[in-house]
Amino acid sequence: MASYKKLSGEIDQETSARRLHGAPTYDKWRRDDLYHLAAQKGIKNRANMSNEELVAALRQTQSGGGSKAG
Question: Following DSSP, what letter does each residue of 1-69 receive, concatenated?
């Protein structure tokens, strides 16, 4: 069954934009997975980051922010 949002044309713009641009949604990832990906991306100070901070840092590297200093 289709959801009301889909039927009414209401769409979460942030989610849609991420899907269009192929950016992964890290919000539901486990910390171990976030940490491992942060290590692959070379994000410094990742051991001291919370899940939210890891997500923000990964999104920043995804968008080309490039600030890996921690």
Answer: ---HHHHHT---HHHHHHHHHT----TTS-HHHHHHHHHHHT-TTGGG--HHHHHHHHHHHHTT-----
